[in-house]
Specification:
5 helices; alpha/beta; five-stranded mixed sheet
């Protein structure tokens, strides 16, 4: 086979391997995400205050399980006030804005909401198969636990309390 054939086969495979290795090497740490907020500003992982625990929630504003979880979560939002919370969707910013208005997220100083758009970096980073998804990190950005679909708020609250 020609050298040209191997070039077109090996280069993409090498890039695929290297990109997967980078994600796996970081998988225990908070991912270096960037999201667009409803106010039009970008927010990056490094903007989070790292002196307290971090909760990452991946959701869809039209997912019944996500909305049921959000209804329960916001009834207990004070239980999670000591954490920095980032809510990330892949939906267009107009849908995320409606979601933010519905739950009055501007009233919560510890919650940031936005969209990663169609990059699916977060979805791929966590290998998310079901929504909602939640990951809890300690103040050093080390993952403590993650959940898909069924998120037990009592258990999450207890784990968060132990991290302080």
């Amino acid at each position: 086979m020609s050298n040209r054939f191997w070039f077109f086969i090996l280069i993409p495979l090498s890039l695929l391997f290297l990109s997967n290795t980078e994600i796996k090497a970081q998988s225990g740490k908070l991912p270096p995400f960037s999201i667009l907020q409803p106010n039009g500003k970008n927010f990056r992982a490094q903007n989070l205050p790292f002196e307290k625990p971090i909760i990452v929630i991946y959701f869809s504003p039209d997912c019944e399980d996500c909305l049921a979880f959000m209804d329960k979560f916001f009834k207990r939002a004070n239980d999670f006030s000591k954490a920095s919370i980032v809510m990330i969707s892949y939906f267009p910013i107009k849908d995320v804005k409606k979601f933010a208005m519905k739950y009055k997220i501007a009233n919560y100083k510890n919650i940031t909401v936005g969209t990663e758009g169609t990059s699916f970096f977060i979805k791929d980073y966590y290998k998310i198969m079901e929504l909602p998804f939640l990951a809890l990190y300690d103040k050093d950005g080390n993952i403590q636990i993650s959940y898909q679909r069924n998120i037990p708020l009592n258990e999450l609250s207890n784990k968060l309390m132990k991290l302080r």
